[in-house]
Amino acid sequence: MNLSEEINKIPIIKAITSAAEENHVEVFMVGGIVRDILLKRNRNDLDFLVIGNSLEFAEKVAKKLGISKVTKYKNFGTAHFKYGELNIEFVGARKESYNRNSRKPVVENGTFEDDIRRRDFTINAMAISLNKNSFGELIDSFNGYQDLLNKLIRTPLDPFQTFDDDPLRIMRAFRFAAQLEFDVDESILKAAKEMKERLRIVSQERITDEFIKILASPKPSIGLKLLFDTEVLEIIFPEIHNLAGVDQRQDYHHKDVFLHTLIVVDNISQVTDNVWLRFAALVHDIAKPQTKKFVEGIGWTFHGHEELGARMMKNIFHRMKLPMNKLEYVEKLIRLHLRPIALAKEEVTDSAIRRLIVQAGEDLQDLITLCRADITSKNPQKVEKYLANYEAVMKKVLEVREKDKLRAFQSPVRGEEIMRICNLKPSKKVGEIKKAIEEAILDGIIENNYEAALEYLMRIKDDYLKDDEKK
Ligand code: CTP
């Protein structure tokens, strides 16, 4: 197959081919870019394999393009520069094996074949020649093109060897399966299951990066299910692994929380690309196993799983090295995920709605998105009823918001003023008084404005200060 037409569209190709000719060096386009050209996917990361000195070659190409900043990694034989939006990387052909314990690759120079066969998957082991006599030819030593057509992830070598070189490839296989909606070859599943423990030597950052890529894919359940079936999930995210299974007692069984979670994550992924909202969907029921209780006559209950689940997040964020600035958001969504349905069921009071508005703050819409995704009933009438309930809650939210202008809620009488009026130093008491004013507004005892809040403060302050005088 000749792909000259496709690669001639890439702006830097001319500079590369002329530098290759002038310097008598062989160059190939390799890896993800070849796969993505064949899949007609857009991509900004372009990798070139150089048979010869890749660092020198990168400098020559950069010079032709008028680029002065080339980043070089001598030990790895790679050089990188940016050209507009494009990330251009040159790598020398290598025969790489990893130090089994440290994961540091031991890099040796190799031939084109050495380099290609040590790559992770057949769909990533294709190359396009940029050399004069074979310009544009696809070099496909492991039938990667056929695998692309068959939508199959396969390793060029025995998967045990491919994964031994870099155990993270186990997760990469599942990530590509989720991203491209491909199947994974049986041999990979078998090797993954047997070699899963080797993932323990891989850095948490690399593991988390792949995990998040799975969550960000169009249908994350494909990757999550593969992680589960091969028991890799038990190593990288045991709390999610533990959601699986059903208990039967008398006539009661509860639904398998893992399978339910997969549906919720896929549901939410159809309506949002926000990976942290998807993550919240993944973990929203994370404390169900710990809170599960069988109650005679009622069946299975999971009281408090939303609060415990929220509390579990801090450790998980630390352990998985997730961005701490997303912690509060995820905690909040877990903590509140049952609230809208509770409000839909009862006779809704304004104050209950106000609490939801205040506690969810700017994430209220995301919370409702999560709640809608959480409906996994197969009964269309039930689904319709639940969705209508959320509509009703949101309508009420709009009404109360309009009435109270609650968007940025806090006591209209600020802490400074409370201290001045009550003659208090900064202390817990100031916070308590402020909270009392806020509660009165939320409960609808007073209106949400300065005059009402000030008047209320004058009314309650003596009660609060009285306790202090006694001491
Ligand atoms: N590669 C590999 N083993 C790894 C990582 C990468 O063999 N553990 C090879 C593959 O040939 C891959 C190429 O290096 O195609 C580039 O790696 P990377 O940029 O991580 O992946 P891409 O395939 O380019 O995919 P994406 O950019 O979508 O992650």
Brief rundown of the structure:
By secondary structure, the chain is of the alpha+beta class.
From the coordinates shown, what is the CATH architecture of the largest domain?
2-Layer Sandwich
- Ions, cofactors and other bound molecules: cytidine-5'-triphosphate
Instruction: Give the CATH H-level superfamily of the largest domain.
Output: Beta Polymerase, domain 2
Helix tally equals: 25
Q: Give the biggest sheet.
A: 7 strands, mixed
Strand content: 5-15%
Strand order of the largest sheet: 3-4-5-2-1-8-9
* Number of E strands: 15
Q: What does the radius of gyration come to? A: 29 Å
**Distance, first to last CA:** 90 Å
CATH class group of the largest domain: Alpha Beta
- Which structural class do you get from the secondary structure elements? alpha+beta
Mean pLDDT figure: 89
Helix content: 40-55%
CATH topology of the largest domain: Beta Polymerase, domain 2
Which segments are poorly predicted (pLDDT under 50) over 5 or more consecutive residues? none
Overall geometric form: elongated
Give the tally of structural domains.
4
Would you mind describing this structure in some detail?
The longest helix is centred in the C-terminal third of the chain and has 25 residues, at 380-404. This protein has helices at 4-8, 13-23, 32-38, 54-64, 112-117, 144-150, 159-165, 168-180, 186-195, 204-215, 220-229, 232-236, 238-241, 257-269, 275-283, 288-291, 305-319, 327-336, 339-345, 350-360, 364-373, 380-404, 415-422, 428-442, 450-470; strands at residues 26-30, 45-51, 71-73, 78-83, 86-92, 94-98, 105-109, 127-129, 138-139, 152-153, 183-184, 248-249, 252-253, 293-295, 299-301. It has 4 domains: 4-148, Beta Polymerase, domain 2; 151-236, Hydrophobic Seed Protein (Orthogonal Bundle); 338-409, no CATH class; 415-470, no CATH class. The protein is built from 25 helices and 15 strands. β14 and β15 form a beta hairpin. The protein is α+β, with helices and mostly antiparallel strands and 471 residues long. The strands form 5 sheets. The chain has a 7-stranded mixed beta sheet with strand order 3-4-5-2-1-8-9. The chain has a two-stranded antiparallel sheet with strand order 6-7. Strands 10-11 form a two-stranded parallel ribbon. Bound molecules: cytidine-5'-triphosphate. Residues 31-32, 45, 47, 119-120, 124, 166, 168-169, 172 line the site of cytidine-5'-triphosphate.
